[in-house]
Automatic annotation (TrEMBL):
Keywords: Coiled coil, Repeat, WD repeat. Residues 240-514 form the EML-like second beta-propeller domain. The lineage of its organism: Eukaryota, Metazoa, Chordata, Craniata, Vertebrata. WD repeats lie at residues 232-273, 355-396, 481-514. It comes from the Eukaryota. The keyword Coiled coil applies. It comes from Buteo japonicus. This is Cilia and flagella associated protein 57.
Length: 1100
């Protein structure tokens, strides 16, 4: 971990080695010296002070894989893990923890949410483990993404939970996609809020941007809400095709995300968008802007661009078409089929011509302005120019060392610009390369030429755009603009040279405005007028016209119904107005009486208040008099103090004057004494001078000098004493004056001091409370310090114990190595003995053969002595066989001993290696050494003896029989469980079948009920119309009794309708219950009876 300064691009000489995988590091927004670092298995807080990074926390608890974190305050950090946990750390310690569990209750699609999430996605949502992929803080709390397609908002509370979930926000479905539910399953990578926190924007792993207005959270009552696109859906994969239209300001793009999109480069909006099931490799727009060609992995499709849709008009059997292009006139189009370029008529759709000659894959094709010439390039370095009238090549330029990726034609079709893998831009004319411009260590991937012929634009593999003038410069004379994050795949310029369009592998499209050097937009000679025609299907127009007719009929019916209802409401309202007038007149009379009562009460209260005011005024006058008397007493006291201070100052002045007078008298006495003393000395020295004149002269000179110095010193001391006492007098006078001023100030300060005393008493109480809190914190910290000290001591003791145990183990290891050396030596001796015995056995066998030969012949010669000789021979053979068995047993025992010792040494080594692995854990180290001691030291005798072969075999056979028995029992259990599961499986299938049948029956009943309701409503309308006609005809001769009868008939009809509606609601509730049962018990068989969804949709 290295910390850098912002001002200089050098590190701050502070590095902290972390031997772990760091996921994210953030500085605290409140304190820029604090850093939080999280990763797989660690959470650390650092503080930058005195030029170094110091760790502030000790990690406790189980380590987690922290994927993200955010600072909530100066001390609080919220972290998200890969197991769906949110952890709140306060000053490095875990303060609060919760696990996020998303319930899919809000995933059902309703009629009022057009872009909701489908309930079919619930299973996949539940199967995926939740993990916190992003978290960000805002003023009310924080927001986090816990699973694909959802953001949770948490707000701070005063309860134990600290933070509580307030809302779930889901990504919407994209209805234009072939699989709409996948759009709501995107992983949210980043979340951010605007500075005013009015909007929230999220970024997904499929390069999509969504927004949500935070103001709606306070207004919405539902817990679930949905994002909306920030502008429009973008490409999520590499863009493979781009083309512009001549008659309209639109461009078409296709991508590996299986979508085709039509954009407007003037308004910067998405006009049309559709996603298909196959990947799209190339796209070309017809000059009219009403059709387009799209090359898919299976076919080439001719698509009509309708007002709100894309309709496939014709399909061509061209697989993996990587390049296609309409001619400038629109009557022809070219499609690349392998190494062949096929020319089709866009009117008859016939294959007019096939251009053969390329040996590599064709990467780009271009038409000339008059559609007479056609240019193509391939991966084998060939650039061919074709004549479409003859179908033959007119010119060619082949460079096998270059793989061409893009070409461009000048407006007169005389010059070809080509770019490829050799890092140059080539200018080709007359079948040869006329000019080459180096790319300066960058690969050019796309090229475009302005229609004026003055500018050439090149796209690079780094995503930059270079603009250079024509003729091409040899030096680095071009302007470079950074734009894309991937290589530029396609590039095109509009017919008026005002816009440059670029597409890239990162899925982004850039629209550039072309300016001249002066900063103004290039002016086109003729103003372009774009076409505004749009294609619409006849069926769509018929449907819309039919819908308009239905709506008009409906509007007329509603107008008649509304007029009738308004009449009824007027009658009802008039009756209500009369009732309300009567009620209000009664209330007004009651309020008048209340008003009179309240006025009387008011007069009484005014008298009471006047009496109370007079009493309060008297009290106030008394208090003022008391305060004046108190203040007068205080002033008298202060005057007395002032007079006492004046008396003290006079006494001080008198004392100082006396001291000065005494000092002057003492000075005069000292001067007189000195003069007398020196005169006596002078007399004595005059006598001596007579005896020695020369000596006395010198002494007199020295004496005079000393005298002068002494007098000067005394004068200086007297002056200093005078100045000192004068200064003291001045200071005392000034202090007296200050005291006089302070006496006046003290009166004012007394009141302020009393107030300050009260405030300080409050402060002292608050400080005492704070002191108690701090003392509690200090005690807890002291306890922690003591615990840490004890831990340090324990660890030091354990380290000493470990070092002792390691030393003992090393000694034991040395002893075992010595023992091993001895055993190896003995094994070698035994091997030598075995070899000698084998040699003896061979010699004995040879002797037996010789003896047999020698004995057979005499037996044949002397048959009488055969019985005696046979018995002797048998005895000899038995003795020899016994000796052989004894030697074999000894050899087997020695080998067994050797094997036992080797296994014992291996076991000891492995146990010792495992014990050394616990060198950081003292307890495990102790337990391991004790086990080694009990295994190899205390029970050495028992280990040396070991188990015999027979015991081992018996134990092995016993364990084998036990395991075989267990295996047979488990097999029986598995068979029984399979039978039970099959029975339950069949039972659930039968229940599901019956439930589906019931649902279908209920839906049929519902349709019948709805038809009945519709019939009843139509009859009711007819009756209403008839009654309305009768009312209008006999409006002059209306009486009260027939109106009452008509109202009763209407009420009966309304009751009938309400009964029918209740029955319909009951049937809907039953259907919902059955649907919930089906959701709880999912279908397990694929060939079950299908639901009548079409009927249900029609009824809805």
């Amino acid at each position: 971990l290295v910390c850098f300064s912002v001002s200089g691009a050098e590190s701050l000489q502070n590095k902290y080695n972390i031997c772990l995988f760091v996921n994210i590091a953030f500085f605290s927004p409140q304190d820029n010296a604090q850093v939080c670092i999280t990763g797989n298995g660690f959470f650390k807080l650092f503080k930058y002070s005195e030029g170094t990074l110091k760790q502030m926390n000790l990690q406790k608890g189980e380590p987690q894989n922290y994927l993200c974190h955010a600072w909530l305050s100066e001390e609080e950090v919220i972290c998200g893990t890969d197991t769906g946990k949110l952890m709140l750390f306060e000053t490095g310690e875990l303060h609060w923890e919760t696990s996020v569990d998303i319930t899919n209750s809000f995933m059902l699609v309703s009629s009022d949410v057009p872009c909701g999430l489908a309930s079919e996605d619930n299973g996949s949502q539940q199967d995926s483990m939740p993990q916190i992929s992003a978290v960000v803080a805002y003023s009310k709390g924080f927001a986090c993404s816990s699973s694909p397609g959802v953001v949770l908002l948490f707000e701070k509370t005063k309860e134990k939970e600290v933070y509580k979930e307030s809302q779930e926000i889901w990504l919407p479905q994209d209805l234009f996609r072939s699989e709409p539910k996948t759009s709501g399953r995107q992983d949210i990578i980043c979340i951010c809020f605007s500075p005013s926190e009015e909007t929230m924007v999220v970024n997904t792993n499929k390069n999509q941007l969504y927004m949500f207005t935070m103001l709606s959270t306070s207004l919405m009552k539902e817990k679930a809400a949905y994002f909306s696109y920030l502008n429009f859906p973008l490409h999520s994969a590499s863009i493979t095709g781009l083309d512009i239209c001549m008659w309209k300001p639109i461009l078409a793009t296709c991508s590996l995300d299986r979508s085709v999109r039509i954009w407007s480069y003037e308004t910067n909006t998405l006009e049309l968008y559709k996603e298909y099931r196959e990947e799209a490799y190339t796209v070309s727009l017809h000059p009219t802007g009403l059709f387009c060609l799209v090359g898919f992995s299976d076919k080439l499709r001719f698509i009509s661009l309708l007002y709100e849709d894309m309709h496939v008009f014709k399909e061509f059997a061209v697989r993996n078409c990587r390049e296609c292009s309409f001619s400038n006139g629109g009557h022809l189009f070219a499609a690349v089929n392998g190494n062949v370029i096929q020319i089709y008529s866009s009117i008859t759709f016939e294959n007019i011509n096939n251009l053969k000659g390329h040996s590599g894959k064709i990467h780009a094709v271009k038409w000339s302005a008059d559609d007479a010439k056609f240019v193509s390039c391939d991966t084998h370095g060939a650039v061919y120019e074709w004549n479409l009238l003859t179908g033959k090549r007119e010119s060619e330029c082949v460079l096998k060392s270059c793989i061409y990726s893009s070409i461009a034609l000048s407006s007169d079709a005389k010059i070809i610009f080509a770019v490829g893998s050799d890092q140059t831009l080539k200018e080709i004319s007359e079948s040869s390369v006329q000019h080459e411009v180096p790319a300066f260590d960058v690969v050019y991937t796309a090229v475009a030429v302005s229609y004026s012929g003055h500018m050439v634009f090149v796209g690079t593999s780094l995503g930059t755009i270079r603009a250079m003038k024509y003729p091409l410069p040899l030096t680095r004379d071009f302007n470079e603009y950074r734009a894309h994050a991937g290589a530029v795949t396609k590039m095109s310029i509009t017919n008026n040279d005002l816009f440059l369009l670029t597409a890239s592998e990162d899925g982004s499209i850039f629209i550039w405005k072309v300016y001249d050097k002066g900063g103004g937009i290039l002016k086109w000679v003729k103003e372009v007028e774009y076409a505004e025609e749009v294609l619409i299907m006849r069926s769509d127009i018929e449907e819309k016209s039919q819908a308009m007719l239905d709506l008009q009929i409906r509007v007329k019916e509603l107008q008649t119904e509304n007029a009738y209802q308004l009449r009824l409401k007027d009658m009802y309202c008039n009756e209500k107005i009369k009732e309300l007038e009567e009620n209000f007149t009664q209330e007004i009379s009651s309020l008048k009486t209340k008003h009179q009562i309240l006025q009387a009460e008011k007069e009484k209260q005014e008298l009471q208040h006047q009496f109370q005011l007079s009493e309060l005024m008297n009290k106030q006058a008394r208090e003022v008099q008391q305060l004046e008397s108190d203040s007068n007493q205080k002033l008298l006291m202060e005057n007395e103090k002032y007079q006492e201070l004046q008396v003290k100052s006079q006494r001080m002045q008198e004392e100082y004057e006396k001291q000065l007078h005494n000092l002057e008298e003492s000075k005069n006495k000292a001067v007189k004494e000195l003069t007398e003393y020196y005169e006596e000395k002078l007399n004595e020295k005059s006598v001596l001078l007579e005896e020695a004149e020369e000596d006395m002269k010198q002494q007199l000179q020295a004496h005079e000098e000393i005298k002068k110095q002494i007098e000067e010193d005394e004068d200086q001391e007297i002056l200093e004493i005078k100045i000192k006492y004068e200064r003291q007098l001045l200071e005392e006078r000034e202090s007296n004056l200050q005291l006089k001023g302070e006496i006046g100030v003290m009166n004012k300060r007394l009141n302020s001091l009393q107030k300050e005393l009260k405030e300080r008493n409050r402060d002292t109480e608050e400080m005492r409370l704070e002191q108690q809190k701090l003392q509690g914190i200090i005690r807890s910290l002291e306890k922690d310090i003591l615990a840490l000290k004890t831990e340090v001591q324990e660890r030091a003791d354990t380290i000493q114990d470990k070092e002792k145990h390691i030393y003992d183990l090393k000694k034991k290891n040395q002893e075992l190595e010595k023992f091993k050396f001895v055993l190896d030596y003995r094994i070698e001796e035994f091997k030598k003995q075995i070899e000698s015995r084998e040699n003896d056995i061979k010699t004995m066998k040879e002797q037996i053969h010789e003896v047999s030969r020698t004995l057979i012949w005499p037996l044949l010669l002397n048959p009488l002595n055969t019985k005696m000789t046979c018995t002797q021979l048998k005895l000899n053979i038995i003795q020899l066989q016994q000796k052989l068995k004894a030697t074999d047993r000894e050899m087997h025992r020695e080998r067994q001993k050797k094997q036992n010792m080797e296994t014992l040494i291996k076991r000891f080594k492995t146990d010792l290696h495992n014990c050394v692995g616990f060198i950081q854990d003292s307890r495990k180290m102790k337990d391991g050494i004790r086990e080694l001691y009990t295994k190899y030291v205390q029970r050495s005798d028992s280990v040396s003896q070991g188990l015999s072969e027979t015991d081992l075999q018996q134990e092995y056979m016993r364990q084998r029989e036990y395991l075989e028995r267990n295996l047979a029992a488990f097999k029986k259990k598995v068979v029984k469980d399979q039978e039970m599961h099959q029975a339950a499986y069949m039972r659930i299938v039968q229940e599901n079948v019956s439930l589906i049948k019931e649902i279908n029956d209920l839906r049929q009943e519902l349709t019948v009920a709805r038809t009945q309701v519709h019939d009843l409503q139509s009859t009711l309308r007819l009756t209403k119309k008839n009654q309305a006609i009768q009312d209008t005809a006999s409006s002059t001769e209306l009486l009260s009794s027939p109106a009452v009868l008509r109202l009763n008939a209407e009420k009966e009809n309304e009751k009938i309708i309400e009964m029918q509606q209740l029955e319909i609601q009951y049937l809907r509730d039953q259907i919902q219950e059955k649907g919930q049962v089906l959701a709880v018990q999912p279908l397990l068989v694929g060939n079950l009876p299908k639901l009548n969804l079409e009927r249900s949709h029609k009824t809805h």
